[in-house]
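Dear support,

I submitted the protein below through the web form. The confirmation email said the job was done, but the results page showed an empty box. After a refresh the structure appeared. I'm attaching both so you can tell me whether what I see now is the final result or a partial one.
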Amino acid sequence: QVQLVESGGGLAQAGESLRLSCAASGDIGSINRMSWYRRPPGKQRDLVASITSGGDTNYADSVKGRFTISRDNAKNTMYLQMNNLKPEDTAVYYCKAVRRGWLVHWGQGTQVTVSS
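What the results page shows now:
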């Protein structure tokens, strides 16, 4: 039912900022929780940040103070504002949504590359 499309990835230098977007085909107001995951080259996919429908957020230790997750229900879009990027942030970033507390949807991912 729900399709997720990530955008906003690209090339950045260390210290610069990028904002990722995750556009949903439906109303994200019905989504209990949305999350950003990332898969660095040659590594596993790990949770970056999550946000509930009520606005409660959670961040991985590696991005605390630098990344901000948010959602705009009117635009059916979730965002990840990434500031002070580091080379270790290089990864494919994925959007994940959970509806009804158990229905899971994934986006295709967007590449973020950070160079020194």
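Response: this is the final, complete result; the empty box was a page-load delay. The mean pLDDT is 94.
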